[in-house]
Structure formats: C-alpha cells, structure tokens
Amino acid sequence: GYCLISVLETMKTYSAEEGLTEEAVVTKLRICRYHHLYLHSSLRNNSSGTSRWGEFGEGGLLWGECSGKSFEWFDGNPIEELLCKVREIYGLEEKTVFRNVSVSLEGRPQPLYLGTATQIGVIPTEGIPSLLKIVLPPNFGGLPSLYIRDLLLNPPSFDVASSVQEACRLMGSITCSIPEFTCIPAAKLVKLLESKEVNHIEFCRIKNVLDEVLFMGSNAELSAILNKLLDPAAIVTGFKVEADILVNECSFISQRIAEVISLGGESDQAITSSEYIPKEFFNDMESSWKGRVKRVHAEEEFSNVDIAAEALSTAVIEDFLPIISRVKSVMSSNGSSKGEISYVLIDEICRGTETAKGTCIAGSIIERLDNVGCIGIISTHLHGIFDLPLSLHNTDFKAMGTEIIDRCIQPTWKLMDGICRESLAFQTARKEGMPDLIIRRAEELYLAMSTNSKQTSSAVHHEISIANSTVNSLVEKPNYLRNGLELQSGSFGLLRKEIESVVTTICKKKLLDLYNKRSISELIEVVCVAVGAREQPPPSTVGRSSIYVIIRRDSKLYIGQTDDLVGRLSAHRSKEGMQDATILYILVPGKSIACQLETLLINQLPLKGF
To answer: In what residue span(s) does the DNA mismatch repair proteins mutS family domain sit (predicted)?
Structure first.
C-alpha cells in the first residue's frame, strides 16, 4: 500500500497514514489543502529498476492527480527527510520538534470510494451539488461542515464512532440551554499566538471557547456530552486529556485572559464626552484602542488621554466659545437692524410686578439673551431666579463680596464668583435710619416665614411619598421597580427568576383551563427554560411550538411565539443592543396554543408590574 505523510508547520505536528490504496491517496490529496507536494522516489521505481515515472504511473489515478501539479522528488527516510524540508522552507531551527499525531487505521472502517465521494459532492466537483449542503442546516458551515466531511472520508474506529453517536443522542434529549460552540481554526490561532499578533477580538473568542467548556463541565446534562466528545477530540488533536484536567486548565486560562482583556461594560473604558465637543471627535480618537485591555495595564496612557481631553475641553470653553457667542450675537435677529453686537445693562429686572411671575419673566429674558449670545450685565434681588430650570451656557453668576466687621456683615463693593441670596436688607435699613423697633419686628416675621416655608416643603414631600406608596401597592411590582434601583448583575438575576415564576404560573393556569375544556388532549408539564447571553436553545426545540420572553438589559420585555426558536432568537440578537439579551421559553402543544399564551402574557405581565 501507499503511505501519506502530512506535516502541519503551524501546529508542529505530523501524521503518517500507512496501508492506503491508490484511490484513498488520491481522495486525500483532493480534499486537503497543502502548500508543497513531495513524492518519494520509490513511486517511480518499477520492477526493472528504471526511473521513469511516466512509464510506471501513466494512466493511473495517482499519476493523473499529480502530473498536473507542481511537486518535487525526494529520497531517504520519508518522515525525517520531509521534516527537514519543512524546517528549511519555514526557517525553523534544526532542533524544532514535531509531534506525531498519527492515528492507527486498525479497526477503522473503509472510507468512501473516490467515485462515491465525487458523485455525492463530498469532494468538490464541478456540476455536482454537495449532499452535505442539503442534509445539513442552512447555517451549518465552516469548520463543523468540514468535520462532518472528514468523518465520511476518514471514518473513525468503532469506539470513537460510538462516542460521537452517544453525544448526539444525549444532545437531542437535553432540556437545558447549550453554548454557542465557538469555532476557531487551530492552525491560525497558534500562528497568531506564536507571532504575538493576537488582538483583543481573538482573545475574546478564545475566552468564549474556554467559557463554553466550563459551562458544559458545570452542567449535569452537558458534562456527560463533554466526556463523550473527548475521544473524537483526541483523534483530531492527538491529545488525550481527562475531563477534569481540561476544565481546570480552561478555568485558569480564562481567568488570565479576563485579567488583561477588557470584556466590555467597564466604566473606565468609556469614550470621553464633552458638552461642547462633537462626540464623533472623541469616538474617532479613542474607539480604536479603548475597550481592548484593562486600564490597570495602561494607566499612564489612559491618564494622559484624560488630561489632554480635559485641557481641550477647557480651551474650547475659554477661548472658542466666546468667539462663537460674539458671532451669534452679530447674526442674531434680536440685534439692531445693522446686526451690531447687543450690549444690555439691566438693573433690578422685573421689579415692578408680582414676585413669582416676575421671577419667571426675568428668567425667560436671561435665557433668551444667553441663547443669542448677548453681552451684558443684569442685577436683581429676585433670588428665586436661581432655582428656575434655566438652560444657560454662557452666563456667569456674580455676587457682591461681603466681610464681617464687629460681628456685622458689611459689603466690600467688589464682585466675586457665585450666587448671592442675601441682600443685607436689615443692615441697609438700619444704616438708612429706619426705627429699630420696626426692623426687629421685620426680623421676627422673616424668621417665622422661613420656618413655615420649610415645614410646608417637608409636608408636601411627605404627602407625595405616601401617595406614591399607595399607588404602587395597588399593583404588585417586582422588587427592582419598587426600590427604583438600577439593574445590576445580581438584581437582573432576581428579575429573571421573578419573571420566570410569573410566566410559569400564568401558563400553567391557562393550560389547565384548556385541558378542563378539552381543548387539549393531555395536560403537559410547564417547564420554563432560560437561555442566557452567548447561549442557544437545545436541539429538542427544533420544529416545536414555543412561547418566549426576551428580557432586555433595560428591563423591557418582548413576548413572542414561534416554531423556530433558534432562528427567531438569532434574528432578535442580530439587532443593536440585543446581543446579550436573555430569553425564557416554554414548549407548548401546537401553534394555536402558543398564540393564545402569547396574547395572555402580553395582557397579564403589565398587571404584574412588568
């Protein structure tokens, strides 16, 4: 028979398959991708000792496969000589060791014949559709599809095949959610790691694979599948690893990656923002590097960027905005007919009318002048203006400076930054000669008025609190709504369990009612299953009706029904902001029942506070 030796430079592995037929060699050459092809000189030596490849091989399958390709002849020990050539081509050191991952053909069934593999399209052939594309799901491609093809062309031993079959059987009967099963080409990954060119995206993908192994190892149903998959994995990788060792190593590496790589949602990775600088500017400057590694590993660089951003914002506010304000005032419709800059001086604005409404009118005037970029000075004793929700961008508040002399507050007649709420009315009245009796009574009235104002304010707030409590008690709300707390990871878990409990109760009651009315033949068990971020429903949901509730991170719910839960969930998660959404689903007997439960949940969940 023939011997086919394959060397994978990136993985530093080689395999030698012996005892192959000519047809088997040709089949493998057609399905594998290789950069260099070497033929051993023994192939062209016929019984007479001549060395003419054409005379011996012409017309044969192997000759026909190789004659149209670029190849080289070599002599000597096949494995040693081939490894030497690989080291030479890729510039590897002479002591570089290649690991033998050869799999014995003993006990393995015969592979597909070349003609059969060609006729069913397993080997890509022009004009012949691939059977795999027909029997496998539409979204089933890439590495998984290649693995199925290799199983057909290179059938494993009976023990390994039994493990694959048992894993499939277990997968078809589980009820829990399953991981996404991230697929990464091993050779590409090793090459990037060796050259230290792995970016944060690849590290996140590696962590996804590790976390999926941990997820399977921690779940009773999935751990049995994980154990069964170790045998076929050993055939592909050449490594025989025990499940507990695999889980421990994955846990260690996942933690190491998490210590370095930013995994999203970290507040110290947020793009800088400024009220006066377009967000697109900071996004262009920072989006290419923020969110890659944790800040602790580049604290100096992050700090320098923060300082530079603050300096830029200050420069814009102090140097650029005043220019813009003056330009706006020139262009303002509130200016003169010639468009000169408006300069306004107002003393005691709106003092000749009722205080509350006068305060609001004054606030509106100031807001408008600020908006058009007017320059001016306005004085007032209407201190309530400082409590109005004014939209001011270019206005500075100034106050009259004061100092205490002989226990009396005296004005300094100098302007200072800040808000002034004290007019020194009593001191001024005394200075102007108003009778002391009147001033003391005025002080008593002022004190009484201030006390009543505080008590009224407290009573109003207390009354509102009681009213809100009464309204909330009419409809029982989840804890996170009653407390008004922002959702955190812990509270999100509580919310999910609360929704799960309510949904299960509503569905059980409805199905029992339908059973009593003989609308359904049997009373099914209601099982609410959660599918978290980067998880998907198990295969048992395929082709079955279900209702589902999607819990978004903003606590909003989406309720739906479908006969294709995997496809529907994939469609939802393709939308912006829905990638990490959690889903709860319940399998039900038929689409009609699913539609009824969907309508019921849409109407009932708001009454439960959701």
So the answer is: 311-447
DSSP 3: E
Is residue 144 within 8 A of residue 164, CB to CB? The reply is no
- Crossing angle of helices 220-237 and 243-260, rounded to 10°: 90
For the chain, the domain total comes to 2
Q: Which residues contact 509 (CB under 8 A, 6 or more apart)?
A: none
pTM: 0.64
Q: What string of H, E and C letters represents the secondary structure of 542-556?
A: CCCCEEEEEECCCCC
| Residue 33 domain-assigned (yes or no) | no
Angstrom CA distances, 431 to 333, 402, 427, 436, 476, stand at: 45, 16, 6, 10, 63
* 313 phi/psi in degrees, rounded to 5: -60, -40
For residue 432, is it left (φ>0), alpha (ψ between -120 and 50) or beta? alpha
What is each CA distance from 485 to 38, 402, 480, 558, 568, in whole angstroms? 69, 44, 6, 21, 31
8 Å CB contact between 586 and 546:
yes
Is 287 part of a structural domain of the chain? Answer: yes
**Domain boundary residue among 304, 324, 344?**
324
Give just the sign of the alpha carbon dihedral 152, 158, 164, 169: positive
Domain of residue 535: give its range.
Answer: 489-608
Q: Cα separation of 360 and 397, whole Å?
A: 17
In the structure, what pLDDT confidence band is assigned to residue 333 with cuts at 50, 70 and 90? low
Domain closes at, from 306, 324, 342: 324
- Model confidence at 456, in pLDDT bands (50, 70, 90)? very low
Dihedral sign for Cα atoms in the order 519, 521, 523, 525 = negative
- Other CB atoms within 10 A of residue 66 CB: 19
Residue 238 · residue 99 · CB < 8 Å: yes
Query: Domain for residue 114, yes or no?
Result: no
Cα–Cα distance for residue pair 127/236, rounded to 1 Å: 31
Q: Which of 9-18, 239-248, 576-585 has the lowest mean pLDDT?
A: 576-585
Nearest of 213, 214, 215, 218 to residue 233 by alpha carbon: 213
Q: Is 484 left (phi over 0), alpha (psi -120 to 50) or beta?
A: left
Averaged pLDDT for residues 456-479: 34
| pLDDT tens, position by position, 360-399 | 998 898 888 888 777 888 888 888 888 899 888 888 888 8
